[in-house]
Amino acid sequence: MSQAANPTAFPAWSPPAILAQLRANACFGQMAEPTLAAFAAIAQWRRLDHGELLAGRGTPAPGVVLILKGAIHTSSFSDDGHEFALSMLEFDGLWGVAAVLDGGGMLRDSRAYQQTDILLLPRLAFLKILDDEPELYRYFVKLLCSRIRTAHAIIDELALRSLPQRLPRLLGALTAGRPSGEQGIAVAQTQDTLATLLGVSRHAVNRELKQLASQGLVGLGYGEIWVRDLEKLKQLWPERGAQS
């Protein structure tokens, strides 16, 4: 994950601050400076409250979103009201790329998780930059290909892995690159969110977390989870074979 740019070095979301955030992003950071400047010129800063709807199912994507703080939670609901999370995009994540490129409606609701700051690149202005420089499409095609591979990996996880294997893998992914404190590496999500991401009940997640805590691998507090031994946690998930 890219390092956060330092927006406090500039007036809050001035053009230089926006440009710095785009430059720090893994996808945009590969582009030439004039191209970054063009994207920075159309970018709009927005702050979303926890649970605020960014785009609803069936509606057009407002544009491509770069997440600066917080997260965007994308989910669907079954007929009986059970929520299944497709993704939780956090800092440096890009939301809305596929829907902007194909012009179709959103397949799921997307809401802010915690207070979330974003840069919105409005759809029509974003597409105009790409149409003016068609070679830019390859950056976003590469991003979408990576997400297809990730989707196949998630299907494998659901079909082939048990919860005692999937939960440690998820905890590892959620703490990757995060600093370790006195209690360990803090997990930003609650047990309810972990259950949603895994497609299981909160009771099942709580049971597995207690088992991991009894082995000294995680720590549990009121509304808090810490990973205390990431290396041993990694031993609990078998590595998948290479994805095609």
Shape call: globular
- What is the annotated CATH architecture of the largest domain? Sandwich
Number of strands: 9
Summarize the main sheet: 6 strands, antiparallel
Identify low-pLDDT runs.
Answer: 1-11, 240-244
Number of domains: 2
List key phrases describing it:
Arc Repressor Mutant, subunit A, disordered C terminus, single chain, six-stranded antiparallel β-sheet, disordered N terminus, 9 strands, 2 domains, 9 helices, alpha+beta, Jelly Rolls, 244 residues, three-stranded antiparallel β-sheet
Task: Please explain how this structure is put together.
The protein contains nine helices and nine strands. It is α+β, with helices and mostly antiparallel strands and 244 residues long. The chain starts with 14 loop residues before the first helix and ends in a 10-residue tail after the last helix. The longest helix has 24 residues, at 137-160. The strands form two sheets. Strands 1, 2, 3, 4, 5 and 6 form a six-stranded antiparallel beta sheet that branches. A three-stranded antiparallel beta sheet has the order 7-9-8. The chain has two domains: 7-157, Jelly Rolls; 162-234, Winged helix-like DNA-binding domain superfamily/Winged helix DNA-binding domain (Arc Repressor Mutant, subunit A, Orthogonal Bundle), CATH 1.10.10.
